[in-house]
Amino acid sequence: MDLGTSGYPTPAAEKIESYYDVPEGVDIRGRYDEEFAKILTIDALKFVADLQREFRNDIKNALECRREAKSRYNEGALPGFDPATKHIREQEWVCAPVPPSVADRKVEITGPVDRKMVINALNSGAKVFMSVTKALKVVAVFIISKADFEDALSPSWENLMRGQVNLKDAVAGTISFHDKVRNRVYKLNDQTAKLFVRARGWHLPEAHILIDGEPATGCLVDFGLYFYHNHSTFRRTQGDGFGPFFYLPKMEHSREAKIWNNVFEKAEKVAGIERGSIRATVLIETLPAVFQMDEILYELKEHSVGLNCGRWDYIFSYVKTFQAHPDRLLPDRVQVGMTQHFMKSYSDLLIRTCHRRGVHAMGGMAAQIPIKDDPVANEAALELVRKDKLREVNAGHDGTWAAHPGLIPACMEVFNNIGNTPNQIKTVKREDAANLTEQDLLQIPNGVRTMEGLRLNTRVGIQYVAAWLTGSGAVPLYNLMEDAATAEISRVQNWQWLKYGVELNGDGLGVKVDKELFDRVVEEEMARIEKEVGTEKFNKGMYKEACKIFTGQCTSPTLDDFFTLDAYNYIIVHHPEEPSKIQLMPYVYWQ
Ligand SMILES: CC(=O)SCCNC(=O)CCNC(=O)[C@H](O)C(C)(C)COP(=O)(O)OP(=O)(O)OC[C@H]1O[C@@H](n2cnc3c(N)ncnc32)[C@H](O)[C@@H]1OP(=O)(O)O
Ligand SMILES: O=CC(=O)O
Ligand SMILES: [Mg+2]
C-alpha cells in the first residue's frame, strides 16, 4: 500500500469508495453506518474541517512546545511558575459568572458514552432522590453527568460514532435502549442530570477522518460533531441559555487553553450564539499545568466553569515529567493518595485559585466501586469513598466525581455538608493556600516500593490494555475502577523502576528491579490472569497482545508519552477494504 508523507494512506494513494457525503478535502475511512451518517453530515464535517484547518498549526505548535518542555525537564529543569505571567497570577480579575444551570455541581457521575450507561447516568439523579435518607430528601439534588470520550473510552471508530449517536439522542430526550437478554427497556426519567462532554486530549489523532490528507485532531472531531448537532437543543432544554458544557483534559500550558478558547469563539460565531455560551471545566491533571492554573482560567475566562483535580493523570504526569530524575521515584501506586503533601498542595491551590476567580473547584475520582458479593468489603469501600469526599468538601471543593451510580448517595450525603448554597465559591476562599510554593507542589511523596506493587502494576496494566483493545475503556479490576489514567500510572511506574533498577525496599527482600525480574513477574502474572479469568476467556481475549504492548512500553529505552498512541494502531479499522490493523504510528504525524 502506498503511504503519504505522514505515514497514513492518502486519498491519492488508493481508490476510496466512501458512502458518506463529504465536503472537499475530507475523507471518511471508518465503516459506513446509516446511524453514523446522520452524525457525519456534509455540514457537520465541514464545521469540523474548518476547525481543523484554522487551528491545526496552533495545535502542532502546542505539541512541539510540550516536547521542548520535556527536553528541558529531561535535562534537569523543574516545572515552576512562569515569571512572564506573574501579572496574571497577581492581578485581581474574575471569570464570567457561573451559569445558574450548573451552579450546583455537588456530584458528577462519569462514564463512557455507551448507550445504556448514558441513560443510567442521566437518570442517576432521580435514583438518588428516591433512595437517599429522609433528611436528604428535602435537599434539591443536582447531578451532572460527564460523558467521556477520554480516559473511560477506548477510541475505536465504533465507540466514538456510537457515542455521538447516543449523545444526540440523549440531548434530544429520545434515547432508549432495549437490553434483550434481560428484556429491559431503558428510557430517560422526567428529571435528568445535566450533561458535560469530555473530548479527547490534543495529542490523539482521529485516523478514520482525513482532512486534506492528514488525520483530524481527535478532540476537534469530538467537540465539533457534538457541538454542531446539539448546541441549539442543549441550550434550550438543559443549559437555560448556556452550553453545551465540556471538560477539557490533559493540558500542560495555558497556550493550549487559548486554542480551546478560540475554538469556542469560532463555534459560537458560526452558530450565531452569544460569546460565552459554551462553558468548560479544565482538568488540572498534568504537573506542568498546576503552575498555570491562573493562566488557564485567564485564557478561558469567558468560557470557564472551573478546574478539576484529575488526580490519576496527575500522578502519571509526575512520573512522566520526572522520568529523568531518579531522585524523585514514586512509592507503590496505592500509597500515592491525596494526603501526600504534593497532592494536598495541588488540590488546595486549585481551590484557592478557582474561588479567587469565581469558578468551581471540582474534586476527583475515588477509585473504589461497589463490591457486589461481599457486604463487609462493600461497606469498607464506601467508607473510603466517604472519607475521600469528606476531605474534599472540608478543603473547599464545590463538587466531586462518582464512578458508579451506587456511590452517589454517599458522595451526595457528604457534599450536602456544604449546606444551603449550591457551592463554596464565595464561602471558602482558602487564602492560606496562597503561600504554597513550587517546593510544596513538587515534594517527593513518602512511601515504599514492594514486589506486590510491581506485580499489581503489571497485572492491572495488562488486563486494562486487553480490555481497551477490545473496546472497553473503563473496567472493574480487583474492586477498583481502572481507566486510561490509572493504567498509565502502572505503566510509567514500572518503566521508572526498571530504568533506575530501584530496590524494592518495602518488603524486606532488598530485591532490585531488573529485566530478568520483570520478565519473571510478567510470566507469573500472565499465568495468574489466565487462572483468574479462565482459559477460554484468556485465549479469546487480547491478553497476549496487551502483554506485548504493555511490557514493550515498560522496557523501552525512552518513555512513550501515552500508551494510547501506540495502542491506537491496533484499533484503527479502515474501510471499505483495508485490513483491520494498519501500522500508522500516529505520533509521527505530529512531529
Ligand atoms: C481518571 C478518570 O478519568 S475517572 C473518569 C473515567 N472513568 C469512568 O468514568 C469510570 C466510570 N465507571 C464505569 O465505567 C463502571 O462503573 C465500572 C467499569 C467502573 C464498573 O462497571 P461494572 O462492574 O460493569 O458496574 P456494575 O455491574 O456494578 O453496574 C451496575 C449498573 O450500574 C450502571 N453503571 C455503572 N457505572 C456507571 C456509570 N459510571 N454511569 C452510568 N451507569 C453506570 C451499569 O450500567 C449497570 O446498569 P444496569 O443495572 O442497568 O445494567
Ligand atoms: O481524569 C481524571 C483523572 O484523574 O485523570
Ligand atoms: Mg484524566
UniProtKB/TrEMBL annotation:
Q: Where is the Malate synthase TIM barrel domain?
A: 194-444
- Can you list the GO cellular component terms from the UniProt entry? glyoxysome
Q: Which reaction does it catalyse?
A: glyoxylate + acetyl-CoA + H2O = (S)-malate + CoA + H(+)
Compartments annotated for it: namely:
Glyoxysome
Instruction: Please state what the protein is called.
Output: Malate synthase
**Molecular function (GO) terms listed?**
malate synthase activity
Q: Which residues form the active site?
A: R198, D483
Q: Which keywords fit this entry according to its UniProt record?
A: Glyoxylate bypass, Glyoxysome, Peroxisome, Transferase, Tricarboxylic acid cycle
Looking at the keywords, is Nucleotidyltransferase present? Answer: no
Pathway(s) it belongs to: Carbohydrate metabolism; glyoxylate cycle; (S)-malate from isocitrate: step 2/2
**Where would I find the Malate synthase N-terminal domain in this sequence?**
24-87
Q: Name one Pfam family in it.
A: MS_C
UniProt family annotation: Belongs to the malate synthase family.
**Which positions are tagged coiled coil?**
none
Q: Show the InterPro entries listed in the entry.
A: Malate_synth_C_sf (IPR044856), Malate_synth_sf (IPR011076), Malate_synthA (IPR006252), Malate_synthase_CS (IPR019830), Malate_synthase_TIM (IPR001465), MS_C (IPR048355), MS_N (IPR048356), MS_N_TIM-barrel_dom (IPR046363)
Q: Which organism is it from?
A: Mucuna pruriens (Velvet bean)
**PROSITE patterns noted in UniProt:** MALATE_SYNTHASE (PS00510)
SUPFAM superfamilies named among the record's database cross-references: Malate synthase G (SSF51645)
Q: What class of enzyme is it?
A: transferase
Which BP terms from GO are recorded? glyoxylate cycle; tricarboxylic acid cycle
Q: Where is the Malate synthase C-terminal domain?
A: 449-570
